[in-house]
Amino acid sequence: MTAEDRSFLFVLGSSRPDGNSEILARAAAAHLPPDIPQRWVDLNEPALRDFQDGRHESTGRQTDEAEEELRRATVEATDIVIVSPLYWYSLSAQTKRYLDYWSGWLNVPGSDFKERMAGGTLWGVTAMAHDEHEVADGLVTSLNHSAAYLRMHFGGVLKGTASRPGQIREDEQALIRAKTFFHQETPLARFPYEEETAALA
């Protein structure tokens, strides 16, 4: 895939505007080539309703305009960046709700959601209060496995340390990593059992 074919969707899942995770994501996005389209979506505006699983109901799920717009933005992007602070060592509620909607989009009659997502790339950006970034392993695992299920590539998670508003600007190492984050190779995501099988082959 050439640079001309790529487009980025940044999905903001913080409970407050201009949060540390968003600041870090924008720092990384500033180093993308200017000809690559970027779209930024705040999951609070408008907020998605709580997801309801209608897979086994004869009437199916009813969608609204906000959901349909977000679905289109998701499948049209080649690169999706989940921007979520680390809340209780996982994704924020807004972000998890967005990923829950992926389940619904997979099961819409005639849906090509899984086919259109395959081959794309999933990324993550998160800020946390800890200096020990391994506490975010649960968030990383959630995104990796989501990418693996859809046969997407996974670019990893850009992590930074911050708690107070704007404090991420003091994390020099995170800002240095941000400069090259979106320029790294992105392997096809795998579940752990797939990696073990490949190692034994």
Topology at a glance:
Blueprint: E1 8-12, H1 20-29, E2 38-42, H2 65-76, E3 79-83, H3 93-106, H4 113-117, E4 121-128, H5 137-149, E5 153-161, H6 172-180, H7 192-200
Parallel strand pairs: 1-2, 1-3, 3-4, 4-5
Helix pairs in contact: 1-6
Task: Describe this entry's structure for a reader.
The protein is an alpha/beta fold and 201 residues long. It has 7 helices and 5 strands. It has helices at 20-29, 65-76, 93-106, 113-117, 137-149, 172-180, 192-200, and strands spanning 8-12, 38-42, 79-83, 121-128, 153-161. Helix 1 (20-29) packs across helix 6 (172-180). The longest helix has 14 residues, at 93-106.
Approximate strand percentage: 15-25%
- Low-confidence parts: none
Compute the average pLDDT: 91
Q: Supply the helix-strand structural class.
A: alpha/beta
Share of helix among residues? 25-40%
Question: What's this model, at a glance?
Answer:
With 201 residues, the chain is an alpha/beta fold. 36% of the residues lie in helices and 16% in strands.
Main attributes of the structure:
single chain; about 200 residues; alpha/beta; five-stranded parallel beta sheet; 5 strands; globular
